[in-house]
TrEMBL record:
GO terms for cellular component: ATP-binding cassette (ABC) transporter complex. This is ABC transporter ATP-binding protein. InterPro entries: AAA+_ATPase (IPR003593), ABC_transporter-like_ATP-bd (IPR003439), ABC_transporter-like_CS (IPR017871), ABC_transpr_CbiO/EcfA_su (IPR015856), Co_trans_ATP-bd (IPR005876), ECF_ABC_transporter_ATP-bd (IPR050095), P-loop_NTPase (IPR027417). The lineage of its organism: Archaea, Methanobacteriati, Methanobacteriota, Stenosarchaea group, Methanomicrobia. It is found in: Cell membrane. Residues 4-238 form the ABC transporter domain. Probably part of an ABC transporter complex. Responsible for energy coupling to the transport system. Part of an ABC transporter complex. Responsible for energy coupling to the transport system. It is a peripheral membrane protein. Keywords: ATP-binding, Cell membrane, Membrane, Nucleotide-binding, Translocase, Transport. Belongs to the ABC transporter superfamily. CDD domains: ABC_cobalt_CbiO_domain1 (cd03225). Its main location: membrane.
């Protein structure tokens, strides 16, 4: 049984604009799934179906095999947590601590459990020093972390990140990448994210969906997606820097194995050039 499954999911705005068209999507346990596509491809609209913010015009959305209904919507929203692109939409309490406690409080948890969850996510995200700060005084990267902390405090099984690198500096992007990579194994979470920052896809994702005009036009592993250069070019998408560099080296006759993230690229470069630079 899949954590999330959509079957021919279609969503129409204003009766004549199809934001989603027959989308078939699957997310399993402990996966890291990237959804890439240009602005207007339908990524955010798809995300809003995952916890019932939007309802399908036609087709189905199943969470752990069950459709979203009025009777289970609260449980669904415990299971599926969404961090929106604009952190200001989610960060609004007088202090960071109160903001993080907002979700667990609404779940009706006791004071001790709420305190424990708040302390835990402050530690996980390394923002304990922000505990008593007003959110509106924080930087964009700090607000992003607080927004993520507020969702994590509800202990979802699925974390949805809509353009999580928007507004982050390079250090913030690196910290986010490291954090997301810990979630499946350490906390058993599935992470689904969209991004225009294509290089983090190769560092985080183990499966990729490509969207265009409300449809899924390709899906697969990094190798299966990033070797479709003509498709990506047509969609105004790029491939990550490292595989692009390796491809150029191969075209110049250098015997180097293709790789898609930093760790595997380092191994490829050392094997290809290590002896030369000993």
């Amino acid at each position: 049984m899949h954590l999330i499954e959509t079957r021919n999911l279609t969503h129409t705005y204003n009766k004549n604009i199809d934001a989603l068209k027959n989308v078939n999507f699957i997310a399993g346990r402990k996966q890291r799934i990237a959804i890439i596509g240009a602005n207007g491809a339908g990524k955010s609209t798809l995300f809003k179906h995952f916890n019932g913010i939007l309802k399908p015009t036609s087709g189905e959305i199943l969470i752990r095999g069950e459709p979203i209904t009025k009777s289970n919507i609260k449980e669904i929203r415990k299971l599926v947590g969404i961090v929106f692109q604009n952190s200001d939409d989610q960060v609004f309490s007088p202090t960071v601590e109160q903001d993080i406690a907002f979700g667990p409080t609404n779940l009706g948890l006791d004071e001790h459990t709420i305190e424990h969850r708040v302390n835990e996510v402050l530690r996980i995200l390394d923002i304990e020093d922000l505990r008593n700060r007003p959110p509106h005084h924080l930087s964009g990267g700090e607000k992003k972390r607080v927004a993520i902390a507020g969702v994590l405090a509800m202990e979802p099984q699925i974390l949805i990140l809509d353009e999580p690198t928007a507004g982050l500096d390079p250090r913030g992007v690196a910290d986010l990448t490291q954090f997301v990579n810990r979630l499946p194994e350490e906390y058993g979470m599935t992470v689904i994210f969209s991004t225009h920052h294509i290089d983090i896809v190769s560092e985080i994702a183990d499966y990729i969906y490509v969207m265009d005009k409300g449809q899924i036009v390709a899906q697969g592993s990094m190798e299966e997606i990033f070797t479709q250069q003509e498709l990506l070019s047509d969609l105004r998408l790029d491939i990550p820097v490292l595989p692009k560099l390796i491809k150029n080296l191969q075209m110049h006759g250098i015997d180097i194995k293709m790789a898609y993230n930093y760790e595997s690229s380092e191994k490829s470069f050392l094997k290809a050039f290590g002896k030369k630079y000993d």
